[in-house]
Fold each of these.
Amino acid sequence: MVSAPSTTSVPYGGSTGSAAVAGSTASGATLRTDDGQLSGQAGASHAKAANEEGATGEASSNGFDARQAALNHRTEENNYNYGVDEHNCYSKFLVNYCLDKARDRMRAVQAGIRKEQLALDEEQRTARAQQRDQQAALQRAQDEANAPQRAAQDASNQQQYEDKQHQHQLDQAQRAAEAPQRAANEQSYQQKEQQHALDQAQRGVSPSQAAANQQAYDQKQANFQTQLEQAREQGAQKAQERVEKQQSFQRKQETAAQHEQDVATRQKQAADKAQQKQQQQLQQQQQLEQQQKQQQQEQ
């Protein structure tokens, strides 16, 4: 008793048998010649697989999985039929003749399955290439659609940077213009303090009171100097922060420009690869067609 094999591989036979056997197996049916046994099981199964393949192809846009499953099923069935034929041949008188005929039938069916498998593989490669091309086209379209927005954002960033630089220059000019006034105010303050000390001396302020007044004056001067130093340090710190922000913005601008250049480079490389892939696929298809023509001529 020969059991049906479970393998799903697609073997390839080197011999195609006679023209009569090849013509008979083109429709997917397995024949029994002069060995006295004619089985309709293989033909019915092949027809069923073909019908299932056609139905699945109509229900799906490509139907690659269903077609592959049908080819696998036909391969398993061909192997099973060959096992049955081989088993039955050992009960015949002309064993070797029967085995040769069974082997020819099996190889003829193998050749047909192999031809359909190559066609299916080529269609799958073409579909994948088309899908990649569509995705690349969609990505390019998206990049092109986003280009005005990126350009507007870059222009806005540049305008904001220029506005900050202009405001910084205005602030510096204003501080420079106010410097003489601040110096004049400081000199006036010193003169008032000196006049106050003279007035106290004329009013006969005691030395202890004058010392206390002087100490209070010195303390006020020290506090004023401390506040002045703090104001200068804060001004220097703010100036340093403005410089750092300007440098950070410049680095971001350079990074954005480099990113755009990298994106353009990758897009060009992807386009070149896609073009090379299409050329390779076209060459492979031409070679496959030539091989098929040669095989047909040989048959």
Amino acid sequence: MIFFLLRLTVAALMLASGGDSRPGDFKVIGPGGGGAMFHPTISPHDANTVLVSCDMTGSYITQDAGKTWRMFNLRGVVQFFVFDPLDQKVIYAQSSGLWRSQDEGETWSLIYPKPSSVKSIKMSSDHSDEDLVAEPNPLGNITAMAIDPSDSNVFYVVAGDRKNGTFALLISRDGGQNWTKEEDLPGLANKLWVNAHSPSDARMLLIAGPHFIEKKTSSGIEKISGPSAKTFTDVSLGFRNDGNPLMYVIGDESAFASDDEGRTWRKAKLGPGGAKTRAIATSLHNPETAYVSYRDLQAGGTKWLGVAKTTDAGRNWQLVWKEDSNPGAEPARNIHDAWITARFGSDWGENPLALAVAEQDANVSYGTDLGRTMRTTDGGASWVAVYSRKSGENGWVSTGLDVTNAYGFHFVPFDHHR
């Protein structure tokens, strides 16, 4: 009986309503945003299509560059999104399992673990966290994924068991039906890239986690020396036209860049005062440009927060988003926020928790923070809120990023005409 109910639950979750319509003709009346958002991911096929997740299990997709968003739910909190590099309709998302959409996010199906192997669902917290208990479960928990740029059926994942501390790189050549372990890894990894310039039958992979960066080739695994830091809180990289990677790392709240596979690292200098950084992102095909989120940059007796940008591989940085962290300060002129800054001040959302840069255009970047999703399309010259829009003189209406700002019961009177 439990298994039957579980199968019904899984089947019911293989869909997400489309467009702005909602069952029962309900309409969103909240202002949008208001909660932490993570993992902004831009489609390599269309920079207007973007995904973000939140810490309350909701995930969101826009196909018009943030003008409107549609929420869908994949049971657990989504840890990453991956677009198929060859088919713009296919998207993957990892929550409590690995899910696939074949219609640009309209409906989703669980592909790992296989639905037939799921025995139960374990929920051990009050924050909507859950685990799918499956047998067999040869991978464990998937923490990063990449798809081969020349074959959509070839998946690379890093996965393992956090309790036992065992992690490995695995490959599937049949779209996730069967898996082969390639190499053991020294710890948890949360980033994985395929070098499209490498031979299709001997791919170079780059793998990164909080405590290591490694390169996988046909010769095996090779450790890449990271910057001098105890923990890497964020890693991003892209590949130049010659196939060489350009890597960016946040280590112990400092930003670093390397263009020689870790032999040397340049530490970012954002200004006279010591800034703390926490997110960094570059364009996969335009890696000379990168964006870094910073706070506590002291200059002129003020602590600043925002985003800095480099266009020369980390040698020089420009403060393209620079706001006074004093709650009573005026917002920066190039930051066009919605209701959060107007209501709580420019420091409430803080500097971005996560950043993403479009593969096809390094001028397009999204940043997510404790209450907002912000977007630039002009290389950081201006940043615009995409979680809410102005309605009338004093009101704001959600664009569909309804995270945590509409708690309560909403009365819907009966329509006596029906």
Amino acid sequence: MSWRDLGAGEVRADHVGERHTLAGWVARRRDHGGLIFVDLRDQTGICQLVVNPERSPEAARQAHGIRNEFVVQAEGEVVARAPDAVNPNLPTGEVELQVETLRVLSSAPPLPFQLDEEGVDETLRIRYRWLDLRRRRMQRNIRTRARAVSAIRREMEAAGFVDIETPIMGKPTPEGARDFLVPTRLQPGRFFALPQSPQIYKQLLVISGFERYYQIARCFRDEDLRADRLQELTQLDVEMAFPDREFIYELSERTMQSVWRECLGVEVEAPFKRMTWDEAQARYGSDKPDLRFGLEIEDVTALTRGSEFGVFANAPIVRFLRVPQEFSRADLERLEGIAKEWGAKGLAYLVYDEEGEVRSPIAKFLSQEELDGFRSEPATTVLFAADEPAMVARVLGALRLHLGRELDLIDREAWRFLWVTDFPLLEWDEEENRWKAVHHPFTRPNDESLELLDSDPGAARAVAYDLVVNGIEIAGGSFRIHEPALQARIFGLLDISPEEQRDKFGFLLDALAMGAPPHGGIASGIDRLSMALLDEPYIRDTVAFPKNQAGVDPMSGAPTEVPPEQLAELGIAVIAEKK
């Protein structure tokens, strides 16, 4: 049996006079007191059906009973629309199908929400995800994501990379987030871990002689969810022996050019701009700066060393933003609230009115030299932060992004790609009172930093790089440590004892000792890449079946309790939480 011989969105003027059978979902039904019009939708698009009771009484009877999202089959003749009825917004807008036979293949109850309804609660959308996925925007998102992955595979294979799958069940290792653990019936009391990334496996593959490996890998991280974070994610994973950083940059740039061309029809210019991590922090207060607008941070630490304003004189650094807006007192109070949310103690400012006169409670404490250094155009405001470098970057970076959106400074049509390079190797964790890896514990320090590992670990820089577009990190990578002694040394700095090193990473250390080539690579989160590509504010809308912000699937009800006998078989006891 043939359900259809043409897609609903494929009907054209060339088909006028031909008989065709279409099948799909009812997107809309309109009863004009005689003629019934139905917008029939399938994956190719929409075609208008016209049911005339005089021409086909039985089809009209069927049409009176259908509602949105019924699945129907329609057979009839393709006819040209009257000139005043042509719909220029549809590829099929010049034609319609005069229905002679209409068959209901599947009915639908009243819907929990309409497909064109805005502002539907996200939990409700995920609960009825099969319905949500029929919406035009979601169809676009999932199909665009698929095209992006296809473009990525073509570029990887053209460059000689081999697609190799790695295990989903592996060994728990400390990689930043909590592991999802998997019990096993055959080994009671023991657990596999779902991979946070294929990091160790891809290093082992390169050590095994697969000099160019790639994979579209599933990764799992038990961490709190945000607008741009998932617990289940997909990433392009790339590793190569004898790595060449310029080759990795060029390969990534070529891949992104293909993705943007294939998915958006946009030509992206390469090579991409580059900036060190230190420069990005100083100029934009972020390691993933949005370059679609200016509003750069300026440093005046040297100018304020002898300031009579003690906050400036005593702060490790003083930096500011010149904002093209004359803010009112209420505006400034609101901005100070935002600054305090990011850790600032307050927000000093200078406001220049339309005549260029300054208004500020701190102006009387500033020398003429300082005022000249801060001088800005009329109708502007200078916002200061004075504190430790990390705090100043965090506060001014957050204010910069907020003001860029609020003042409509962002060029929404632009695509601004950026490599951020030379990341810190380590960061100090005040709560745990130890060093932690910024990327992961296998990241290679650059040659200049090797002598700093003992004397000043915080100043060490890594051979690490992130790719950013429009303020979204879409890829990150590094060169890895291939010498067992250096790897053990880094483990030691991370407070991983020799015994723990052998227990958790012994197989990697053994592999590194058996002829490991220099190696490195990059990984790109497909979900976050899709988020940037589609300009979607929520990463969950780039995934077919996501969990909600609580890590729950409202559609299936997962995660669920399991019967006691199943837990007993696994050797697991559940401890009820005390309330």
